[in-house]
Amino acid sequence: MKNINRLFKKGLALLPLSMVLLLSGCNSELAVLDPKGPVAQTQKDLILYSVYFMLFIVVVVFAAFTYMVVKYRENRPGRKETDYDPHMHGNNKIEVIWTVIPFIIVIALSIPTVDTLFQLEKPPEVEANEEEQEPLVIHATTADWKWFFSYPEENIETVNYLHIPTDRPIEFKLSSADAMTALWIPRLGGQKYNMAGMMNTHYLEADEEGVYKGRNSNFNGEGFTKQTFEVYAESPEEYDQWVSETQDQAPELTQERYDELLAPGLTEEHEFSSTHLAWVNHGNPEGMDYAINRHFEKYGELMHLESHQDAEDFMDEENNDDHESDRDH
User: Fold this and answer.
1) Comparing C-alpha atoms, which of 219, 123, 126, 108 is closest to residue 171?
2) Which end of the chain is more exposed for a tag (fewer CB within 10 A), N or C?
3) Model confidence pLDDT, tens digit, residues 191-237
4) Which BP terms from GO are recorded (predicted)?
5) How far apart are the C-alpha atoms of 287 and 12, rounded to whole Å?
């Protein structure tokens, strides 16, 4: 028994150190706690509020538990047999306390959560010293296992990467050509679902220049882990220059070429000087079966990725890269 107590005390002594090492090791990987935009910052604040609030509850509960165990232990000094009443059937005071306190906890967590959810359904609010801008509309369409980003105002389209200007809200129009997916850019904000035949709206914004990872966060088959993309957040001037170069230099996206890209499998990054929205919008009921009607037999096959070995090798290299490459799009 003494050995068990000794080991237990050593474990308690090492617990704080273990927690520090665990948290310090995870900090570099937790992109959601390294926000680069107002939406991600709002969500981080809510996460930390909830975590700290619940940690406070844990501390109070364990402190009360320890107090009860020590104070009312069987072998405490001065304990009398009459102190224990086995026929006590209730205590109204205690029952009111343990009913009211959880009710207060739920309210304290619910109010900021609901308030934040309503905030995220609107474009991020501009600061007092900033000029309000109309959101940049980007249609984010998924197909097994790739991303299409259509810019209707600029009439350009990219595959598996996108450029956005900093300090301007981005209004993503989310849809899917086949399986249900979810767009997630951890450093810019949380995820939201892409579905065929309907369209979701997702507001994000970057307030720092950089290259940020994005991915599909909803499992959709064998290519799920490689359905990633990169977000290039740059100054408005650099963004306008990229738009002009893409409009002038990129080839037009034909319906035949788009149908080829829709086929299940992986592909590299592409850019085009027109969009697929000219003939199909997968966010409408009319466009929900577009990909299925053209590639029905391929959705029943296994190992689509075998026929895209070059693209798979390309994606492997990208995943091993430190994302500080100076590729020019």
Assistant:
1) 123
2) N
3) 999 999 999 999 999 999 999 999 999 999 889 999 999 999 999 99
4) ATP synthesis coupled electron transport
5) 59
Residue 14 has pLDDT above 80, yes or no: no
Residue 324, pLDDT above cutoff 50: no
**What is the separation of C-alpha 310 from the centre of its chain, rounded to a whole number of angstroms?**
29
Q: What are phi and psi of 312, to 5 degrees?
A: -65, -40
Choose among 229, 302, 238: nearest CA to 264: 302
Looking at residue 28, its pLDDT comes to: 46
Q: b or e along 90-116 (b: 16 or more beta carbons within 10 Å of the residue's beta carbon)?
A: eeeeeeeeeeeeeeeeeeebeeeeeee
Which one is predicted more confidently, 94 or 82? 94
CA-CA-CA-CA torsion for 323, 164, 228, 326, nearest 10 degrees?
A: -20
Q: Which helix (H) or strand (E) holds 166?
A: none
| Partners of residue 210 on adjacent β-strands | 233
Task: Look at 308 and 111; give whichever has higher pLDDT.
Answer: 111
Closest CA to 212 of 120, 123, 324, 126: 324
> Phi-psi region for residue 209, left (φ > 0), alpha (ψ -120 to 50) or beta?
beta
Q: Both tokens of residue 105?
A: 């906890």
CA 171, CA 275: separation in Å to the nearest integer? 17
Calculate mean pLDDT across residues 98-122: 94
Under DSSP, is residue 70 helix (H, G, I), strand (E, B) or coil?
A: helix
Task: Output helix, strand, coil percentages for the chain, rounded to the nearest 5.
Answer: 45, 20, 35
- Cα 79 to chain centroid distance, Å, stands at 56
